[in-house]
Amino acid sequence: MSHTLVSFHAHPDDEALLTAGTLAKAAAAGHRVVIVVATDGALGLTSEEYRSDLGERRLAELQRSAAALGVARVIHLGYADSGMVGEIAADPPGSVRFVRAGTGEAAQRLAQILREENADVLMSYDVAGGYGHRDHVKVHEVGAEAARIAGTPRVIEATVPRELLVRAIRFVARFYTFPSDFDMGVYERSFTPRAQITHRIDVRHQISAKKAAMRAHASQAAADGADRTLGVFVRIPRPVYDWVFGREWFRDPAHSGPVSDDIFAGLA
Questions:
Q1: What crossing angle do the helices spanning 162-172 and 238-245 adopt, rounded to 10°?
Q2: What is the pLDDT of residues 195-249, one digit of tens each?
Q3: Please, are residues 214 and 264 in contact by the beta-carbon 8 Å criterion?
Q4: What Cα–Cα distance (Å) separates residue 186 from each residue in 26, 183, 191?
Q5: What is the set of domains in the chain, with CATH numbers?
Q6: What is the pLDDT of residues 101-143, one digit of tens each?
Q7: Signal peptide span per the entry (predicted)?
Q8: Which is it for strands 32-39 and 121-125: parallel, antiparallel or unpaired?
Q9: 94 phi-psi bin (left φ>0, alpha ψ -120 to 50, beta other)
Q10: What pTM, to 2 d.p., does this model score?
């Protein structure tokens, strides 16, 4: 039986790191996969060559990523990027920074899509927003409310076991020097403790699609004078890349029982 999965993200490229393998696996199994992004990512860091019309560029990159994963539909919810740190910039003409949007109003927009798609599963973020980006935290809040409004049967929160992530980053650091803005302390405080993980998905057969999704976001792999973290990731040799990115993890607050390997298991 096929199901519909709606994967909700803050910015273009967020789908690639934590969820691309699961999205590709669902699509390959015949399920309908939809990606919704809250913002266009126009305030993302990048090099000078990409800075002009960055939001439009990033949405185009998202389309290429989605094609690599077999995604059926991509939707921009219409909000503007809030930026990661510092004072929130003024709203651009005709839009509002996502973090300023009313949670109920944004949830209604997403709930409308969930109803249109008759979604069985909404994929969102954990309560910390992963590493704490304010737009990611907002995705968690809006996603939870939208699923309640639409009556979506299952919400799974994309995350990483905190302990495993820290070990993996330290291993990769043996071979690569991370960019100067890379803060290991962020990852030691973020994401989800292993004991709270409810779903562990083996995506090693989707690893080529996942890497293609990462490569599609060229603007987020570049910065003047230095590499971005995504740029480092896509250059990791294949055996190591498969080990680091060959599994994806989720938390379903309503799940009980052992860790599952199928995000659709138990759905009608």
A1: 170
A2: 999 999 999 999 999 999 999 998 887 776 666 777 778 888 888 889 889 999 9
A3: no
A4: 30, 6, 9
A5: 4-251 (3.40.50.10320)
A6: 999 999 999 999 999 999 999 999 999 898 889 999 999 999 9
A7: none
A8: unpaired
A9: left
A10: 0.91
